[in-house]
Amino acid sequence: MSLSIRNQIPGTVTSVTPGEVMATVKVRLEGGQDMTAAVTLEAVKELGIAEGSAVRTLIKSTEVSLATGPVAGLSIRNQIAGTVADVATGGAMASVKVDINGGALTAAITKDAVSDLGLATGSSVVALIKSTEIALATA
């Protein structure tokens, strides 16, 4: 199956914490970073997700925010450090490609945000991704 989701990063499940309806799934990405996804408990069961499972984290580019450094005092669980590899701007929006250890992320942000943050190739950034905005796929 092909998907339009640009960000598809492989990893291995390190833990699953079930709740009444939702579960948090911690994934160690191939580059060594940890990412947390909040998915339904039903999906965990149907996909057979357990510690040691190989998964792909799926994140729409519109759900990736960027900061120029780590952000404290924030509920967003996933803060992945990287380096801007490319910035493509249009009339109002921009596509920012970020190299991370073991892969890449694309963020769709406003052109004004690119300017305000001073983003350019080589800039250090932190990708911010809410755990509820991460889907998981199994092979």
Q: Give the class from helix and strand content and strand pairing.
A: mainly beta
User: What is the overall shape?
Assistant: elongated
Task: Give Rg in angstroms.
Answer: 15 Å
- Strand count: 10
* Strand line-up across the major sheet: 3-2-1-4-10
End-to-end span in angstroms?
Answer: 11 Å
Major sheet attributes: 5 strands, antiparallel
In terms of quaternary structure, the protein is single chain
Instruction: List the secondary-structure elements in sequence, H or E.
Output: EEEHEEEEEHEE
Unreliable stretches covering 5 or more consecutive residues: none
Average pLDDT over all residues: 96
Number of helices: 2
- Sheet-strand content, in percent, reads over 45%
State the helical fraction. Answer: 10-25%
Summarize the structure.
This protein has 139 residues and is mostly beta strands. The protein is built from 2 helices and 10 strands.
